[in-house]
Amino acid sequence: MVVNMTNNAVSSTVIALLDRAKAKYVDTAKNDILSALSGFPDLTPDVEYFVYPDRTHTLAFRLKGTIPVLYKGNTYNIPVALYLWDTHPYYAPVCYVCPTPNMMLKESKTVDKQGRIYLPYLSDWSFPGYDLSGLLQVMSMCFQDSCPVFAKPNSSRLSGAGSTSAGQIQSYTPYPTSNAPGMPPYPTTPTSYYPSMPRGNAGSGTVQPEHLKASVMSAVEHKIRQRLREKLGIMHAELASIRQTHADLRAGQQKLKTIVDDLAQEQKRMEDALVAYQEKKAEISSLLSTSSPEKSVEIDHVIDACTPLHRQLLRCYVYDCAIDDAIYFLGQALSRGRISLTNYLKEVRQLSRRQFIYRATLQKCRIKAKMPI
Asked: What is the pLDDT of residue 188?
């Protein structure tokens, strides 16, 4: 049964299964698997304890389901299973044809008796040029020449065939596809038989040269077509991989261009700031060189106001703050016994009178200067 999930759910499921299978390259393997699932949605990811060809028994990541195969003008669903190594995608997966109980395997040069699949695409596997999508496409094209599974013959049909003619040969047809989702049952088609050989030329017993020529040409044509399909499948898969790599490189080029532009703008801002700092530094150096170090500057004249009114306001404010400090330190001296209480009260009384005058003057200056009181 195939479960409909969103892309995020499928991605999360694949990552969780890869973690369970202890995959070493989770991100790269996940991208390869998701690409294969997008092209072959009838495959389902899962994990299974599996014995690899090197006799290693471990929990492996598995893709199992059906792939569509065009065979003699009809599309058939062929059940397969792909077992990935923990080093995927840098090592070719182990692939099998998984016939259902009402199917039987057909041994060929691409599928052995156990159902294991052998393809040049697997033996020549090299990532990033090879991936699961390309493998499944090549697998589908190879199965077009030799379907790996056939329907088991019906026992009643077998008995009828035997009673009809002992010399007739039975031919099995592959399972057709179904429009139902998932992996539907594959109904069998009526058993067909090859007609018996014509008897018109049976007495001669001579093989004509044109027969040999037609047979050789047919065999050569079949071999060429098979090789051509394999080559085209590999080239198509490599071309798809190159296109994906090209798209990734273009995206990376755009990102690098954006980064370079940002760095150029930042460099320009830094250069402008450096020029401004150098100009200020030169101006300060010029002022220091023209100023006389022997000339003494009174500290009270360093900071000055712009108008006489503001100068009077500043002076009253400074005196007010100074008197606050003086009263504070007189209190500290009294608490430590440095001065007597009589002297303390006398000094505080005099300072408070002066502070009152300064604060009154300060308030009048603020009003005159239209400043907040």
From this structure: 37
144 phi and psi angles, rounded to 5 deg: -65, -30
- Biggest CA pair distance of the chain: 158
- Is residue 105's pLDDT more than 90? no
Query: How many residues does the structure list for the chain?
Result: 373
CATH class label, 7-151? alpha beta
Percent of the chain whose predicted confidence (pLDDT) is above 70? 80
User: How far is it, in rounded angstroms, from Cα 100 to Cα 80?
Assistant: 10
pTM of the model: 0.44
* Cα–Cα distance, 233 to 137 (Å, whole number): 7
Which tokens go with 154? 């019906």
Do residues 103 and 152 lie in contact, with contact meaning Cβ atoms separated by under 8 Å?
yes
Task: Report helix, strand and coil shares of the chain as percent, to nearest 5.
Answer: 55, 15, 35
In the beta sheet, which residues pair with residue 82? 63, 95
Contact between residue 98 and residue 64 where contact means Cβ atoms under 8 Å apart: yes
Tens digit of each residue's pLDDT (9 = 90 or more) over 250-284: 999 999 999 999 999 999 999 999 999 999 999 99
Nearest to residue 132, comparing CAs of 198, 40, 206? Answer: 40
Phi-psi region of 238 (alpha: psi -120 to 50; beta: other; left: phi over 0): alpha
Are 148 and 159 in contact by the 8 Å Cβ rule? The answer is: no
Question: Contact, 233 vs 137, CB < 8 A?
Answer: yes
pLDDT at 206: 53
pLDDT surpassing 90 at residue 104: no
The partner residues of 151 in beta bridges, in order of sequence, read: 103
